[in-house]
Design goal:
The protein has 685 residues and is of the alpha+beta class. It contains 24 helices and 26 strands. It binds 2-(butylsulfanyl)adenosine (IVH).
Length: 685
């Protein structure tokens, strides 16, 4: 091909690609398939490679950033959610986890049979096989919907195109981890370096970047590997996780050969220790081990909470450590006034992450470890948690001796610091006069899980706060009305204009309609997170009843609200105390009064409407024979029911076990529907 011929073809391609881009990005109306589009791009890139003079600044190959080039992947809905795992770092956490599982099942001891497996540090993928043929490969995504990476998946040598052997089901979704071995990772980075391309930080990132390539030919050149570790749904005739793994192996999938059957928690810990010593010689990254209860019927009974199963646990390896200089100790004031000492460090890289700050937890910790500014200290990063200072490298420190003196006053507002009862933490007593706390509370109030005011950043709030314009959440909603009288009005502030001011007011007005659970969470009451706010909202059904109950709350076992709150599963005394504290403060009630005038607080819609127990209140009484109480409660709650300890006219169902007594009589007297255990099981299956 001559240059002229190439140039002619290039022009046609460039125009075509540009048109497709417009139809795709601007008009949302593509006229060709992604694969055909990719072919056009590939041809253009090949021409440019052969004739570099064709690479002009306006070539489609030169568009800035990855986004315009990336056409994105199709979405892939998973058969069942791809869950994550709870983490444990200590043996005691492992015992506690499986003791809870045992109690849930009504067993005395966590003497389960387990499968223990290496936890591969890659990215999880779901493979769908229909009639034994691979039809789809998808990434985890948000757990419900992932990205369709079938073309990339097909390039993996480890993944069979066709399943062979006994009992291959008509349809099966196989789950596992895509990863890169240490050797291949080093070779890939060497080749990246030779070509002047970006280096990957670690094998995990390299694997993710390689799989999520729109051009599967790139993936094909990356030697990605795969370990299968489970399936979504059942395999006929298979009743244990171990047999699931054996089946996967029979069908031709790679299963990790270091997986073991273990009985009891002690055996798990021995397995963990053993794998930890062999970790460096495995040839691929693992970040811990995973324990799974072997019996699939127990797994099904245990089910899952939030995003993690009750039958499986990740036991991480202890952290990566290093030494660095502690430059200074600063104090950080949190939203609730808790003051945390923070080590400002000479930056150090631990396990691929740069660490410049680490928590010192509290005053006692600093004294106990005798940590001083200027010391060289050991730092540890454990899993995903905040880096910690373990201790001082040279406690003699060449005779230098000036221990750290913990300030008595808040670094921000100069109020006294006081020790929280029975805890090592100290709290700034400044409350709302502490600007750090006040600003963090405002920020929390408008944050995503709370009122979710779009476009209102921490920086804006700081500026409004500094100008005395917004001191409490109520002020946010009177801002627009006050704006006319401001000198200058918001639109004349530096960085603001008509449009941005309008957008802010619109966003605030939109936020005036808020669900009760979000409103409760927005108040920032210590211990009341999103989940508990939802429970409170569900239990009281509306703002008015909730507030009336909260105002009536006393820390007294005879108090009605106290009893109601303590009867809600998942709410504990610590939270009840905080709720009481919040509602005993006059200024909080003033803020609530102000907010009531500005907002429209709506009850949360009752979720899972189609389930027979959703939104209903259920009471269990008597001895259940087929389910434990915990199990029964979890089943009811999974449908969105509230489980209560006492029967009232508001109770919807009373589930009656053997030798029930007074509660059953109460239910009959009040005309509440009575269910047998068997009926309850039917309703919740
Ligand atoms: S089981 C419901 N087994 O770890 C159980 N996960 O922290 C789901 N992982 O998203 C996972 N090795 O990407 C399981 N042997 C193994 C694993 C493993 C690595 C990853 C997986 C998952 C994450 C959860």
């Amino acid at each position: 091909m001559t240059f002229e011929e190439a140039q002619k073809r290039w022009k046609v391609l460039a125009q075509e690609i540009q048109d497709h881009d417009r139809r795709y990005y601007e008009e949302d109306a593509p006229t060709i398939s992604d694969a055909d589009y990719d072919l056009l791009r590939r041809e253009l890139l090949d021409l440019e490679a052969a004739f570099p003079a064709l690479v002009t600044p306006d070539s489609p190959s030169q568009k800035v950033g990855a986004t315009p080039v990336r056409r994105g992947f199709a979405k892939a809905q998973h058969t069942a959610p791809m869950l994550s795992l709870d983490n444990a770092f200590e043996g005691a956490d492992v015992s506690a986890f499986f003791e809870r599982a045992a109690r849930f099942l009504g067993k005395e001891e966590p003497a389960f049979d387990f499968v223990a497996e290496p936890k591969i540090d890659g990215l999880s993928c779901a493979l769908v096989y229909e009639d034994g043929r691979l039809v789809r490969g998808a990434t985890r995504g948000d757990g419900t919907v992932g990205e369709d990476v079938t073309a990339s998946i097909r390039t993996l040598q480890d993944i069979p195109e066709v399943l062979v052997g006994k009992g291959v089901p008509a349809r099966i979704e196989i789950r596992g981890e895509v990863y890169l071995s240490h050797g291949d990772f080093e070779r890939l980075n060497a080749s990246q370096e030779a070509q002047g391309l970006k280096l990957f930080a670690n094998p995990r990132n390299a694997a993710a970047g390689s799989l999520r390539q729109l051009d599967a030919r790139v993936t094909a050149q990356r030697p990605l590997r795969f370990f299968a570790y489970g399936v979504a749904g059942d395999i006929e005739g298979v009743t244990t996780h171990w047999d699931t793994l054996m089946r996967l192996k029979d069908w031709g999938l790679p299963v990790n050969e270091n997986s073991r059957l273990c009985t009891g928690v002690a055996a798990l810990l021995a397995y963990h220790a053993d794998i930890d010593t062999r970790r460096a010689s495995l040839g691929y990254d693992i970040d811990g081990v995973v324990y799974k209860i072997n019996d699939l019927s127990l797994q099904a009974r245990l089910g899952s909470v939030a995003r993690a199963p009750r039958f499986a646990l990740a036991h991480k390896f202890s952290a990566r450590q290093g030494q660095t200089i502690l430059k200074s100790i600063t104090l950080q004031v949190g939203r609730t006034g808790v003051v945390t000492p923070v080590a400002e460090l000479e930056p150090i890289t631990l396990g691929g992450v740069v660490v410049a700050r680490a928590t010192l937890h509290n005053q006692d910790e600093i004294i106990r470890k005798d940590i001083r500014e200027g010391d060289t200290v050991y730092i540890q990063r454990a899993g995903d948690v905040i880096p910690q200072v373990l201790g001082v490298v040279d406690p003699a420190r060449g005779g230098r001796s000036d221990p750290f003196v913990f300030p008595r006053t808040c670094p921000i507002c100069k109020s006294h610091l006081e020790r929280i009862d029975g805890e090592a933490a100290v709290r700034c007593t400044g409350g709302l006069i502490c600007t750090a706390q006040a600003q963090l509370r405002l920020k929390h109030f408008v944050s995503k899980g709370a009122l979710d005011v779009e476009g209102l950043s921490g920086k804006h709030l700081e500026a409004f706060y500094g100008a005395g314009l917004v001191r409490s959440p109520v002020d946010l909603f009177t801002l627009e009305a006050r704006n006319q009288t401001l000198n200058p009005p918001l639109e004349a502030w530096p960085g603001w204009g008509e449009q941005s001011a309008r957008n802010l007011f619109d966003a605030l007005n939109k936020a005036r309609d808020v669900l009760l659970s979000r409103f409760i969470y927005a108040l920032g009451i210590p211990q009341v997170g999103e989940k508990s706010a939802k429970m409170l909202s569900k239990a009281y059904g509306g703002y008015e009843p909730w507030k009336i109950a909260m105002v009536a709350l006393r820390l007294d076992e005879d108090n009605h609200t106290y009893q109601e709150l303590m009867a809600i599963d998942g709410l504990g005394l610590a939270m009840v105390e905080e709720l009481f504290g919040f509602f005993s403060e006059g200024h909080n009630l003033t803020v609530l009064d102000g907010l009531e005038k500005e907002l429209r607080i709506a009850p949360d819609p009752v979720g899972t409407m189609d389930k027979p127990l959703s939104g209903k209140t259920v009471v269990f009484t008597g001895t259940l024979t087929q389910l434990t109480r915990r199990e029964a409660k979890a089943r009811a709650e999974a449908q969105g029911a509230t489980v209560s300890g006492s029967v009232s006219a508001k109770t919807h169902f009373v589930v009656v076990g053997e030798s029930a007594g007074q509660k059953e009589r109460d239910a009959r007297a009040l005309g509440v529907t009575i269910l047998s255990e068997a009926e309850f099981i039917t309703l919740t299956t």
